[in-house]
Amino acid sequence: MNDTILTCANHPDRETGLRCNRCGKPICSECAVLTPVGYRCKQCVRSQQQLFETARGADFALVGILAAVAGGLGSLLLGLFGIWGLLAAPVVGGFIADILQRVTRPRRSRYMPWTAAGGLAAGVIILQLWKLLPYLTLVGTATDLAWLLPTLLWPSVHGALMVIAVFSRMKGIRL
Fold it and tell me: 84 exposed, middle or buried (CB, 10 Å; 0-12, 13-18, 19+)?
């Protein structure tokens, strides 16, 4: 029987009976991370996660630009359907996410869904501002904006639904 008292490698004042199942380092409950294959130290988990971060800077730029263009075009297309576009917006967002994932297929990153969602939101906002631009010189009072609000409302809601669909699909959540 082994009577050796182990102490945590990161906290020498804490006794433990737990070891990382990858490197064997003694770890306390604060340093332990539960993984599907058992407890591991934070350093081993971090090194394993870095193996999956294969995206390059150009991938982020490409995804951001493509998402912005697709978001603007998708919002423009869905705007033609008014309120009925609400039903199609998540489908269009899922289609955009599939295209973006095919563009960067072998490479991935946990930040790619954020880049795609941000790019798509930027594309929708730019389209909305572009549509609003001719009316900025004509608007004199707040009542003039009342008729403009519905024309901007539905494309904004469509855009929000597309952003949610793109983000969740690229995170791996199937809607």
Answer: exposed
